[in-house]
Amino acid sequence: MAGLPGGLVREPDQGEPWPTGARVANGREQGLDGVGTRKQKEMDMPDKETHTEMDMPDEAGRAYDVVIVGGGPAGLTAALSLAHCRRSVLVVDAGEQRNLASHGVHNYLGLEGVAPHELLRRGRAEAREAGAALRDGHVAAIQRRATGFAVALEDGAPVTASRVILATGLVDVLPDVEHLPEFYGTSVFHCPFCDGATVDDRRVVVLSWGDRAEGFTRELCAWTRRLTLVTQGHPIDEGVRARLERGGVTVRTDCALRLEGRDGQVAGVALDDGETVPCDAVFFSIAHRTRAELARALGCALTAEGYVRVDPRQQTTEPGVYAAGDITPTDEAALIAAAQGLTAAVAVHESLPSPF
């Protein structure tokens, strides 16, 4: 399946393969079979403490001012702000944040390097203390009603809401390389802007191919020139190769078979020609997709890359439906997602009747 601009791919139908040499990260779609076809099975998630603070299910049929789908930085910031505005808020979170494997969140003012679990723990505690309700699980469907929305939860208990905020984020596609998940988040990364500063002047292998490979590799030159691009057997345009090599990048069209190292620190990438490329870190750029199923079902307009279209106040093309974070066409960073969550919260609050 061909990639789209921005490194996105459309979500395939059940049984349709993901791009060759890829697997899907996060959520239920982590496991792929030998040809890259999706299996519906649970991945090994990090420490389950991400769910231990969730509230018990509320009574079916409860009416909320706002239901927020997704409890990452965008969703929790929106919940905190709306609860401060004395709005009744329910956050439904499946615990599938894309950065859960990371060793730390970067460029978040005042919290540089905070572990993703700790950031979420603090966010949940603050939202709950302000009065928001949090619930563990998935939203099965959202349907528009005359006076708002009916929200069907995975366990079958319905609730209603006057407004909906979608903050469901992205799913990353990982290279199908043996042992890669063991290093993901500690010495294997997907975001140069987030983690590039951790590899200053170190040896880095880049796994990428196609239209995104050159730009992604060049971006890493801001932190290190000790770069080897591995295209996983995909051909590379000779002009691209020449430009990269002039910049000091080694280009290999071999396939990476496995990563070598220990205790989360990668030490080398074993190629199919028998050679092992020594390295201190691996960055990859293949594809990712938005979790836009609910937005699509509600009739929200999407971009060609699958992002949910929003106006400057995070309103989608469907009245009463807002979106924030990586599900929208924005730069991908936790602090940006949080800022969008706040923007959506202000817009939602002002769209509702006064609580007084």
CATH class type of the largest domain: Alpha Beta
By CATH, the topology of the largest domain is FAD/NAD(P)-binding domain
Helical coverage, percent range: 10-25%
Q: If classified by CATH, what would the architecture of the largest domain be?
A: 3-Layer(bba) Sandwich
Q: How do the helices and strands follow one another from N- to C-terminus?
A: EEHEHEEEEEHEHEHEHEEEEEEHEH
Strand coverage percent: 25-35%
Q: Sheet with the most strands?
A: 7 strands, mixed
Q: Whole-number radius of gyration?
A: 21 Å
Distance between the termini: 53 Å
The DSSP helix count reads 8
Number of domains: 2
What's the overall geometry?
elongated
Query: CATH H level of the largest domain: which superfamily?
Result: FAD/NAD(P)-binding domain
Please tell me about this protein's structure.
- With 356 residues, this protein is α/β, with parallel strands linked by helices.
- The chain has two domains: 183 residues, FAD/NAD(P)-binding domain; 114 residues, 3-Layer(bba) Sandwich (FAD/NAD(P)-binding domain), CATH 3.50.50.60.
- Helix content is 22%, strand content 25%.
- The protein contains eight helices and 18 strands.
- Strands 2, 3, 4, 5, 6, 7 and 18 form a seven-stranded mixed β-sheet that branches. Strands 9-16-10-11-12 form a five-stranded parallel β-sheet.
- Helix 1 runs parallel beside helix 8.
- The longest helix has 18 residues.
- The protein starts with 21 loop residues before the first strand and ends in a 5-residue tail after the last helix.
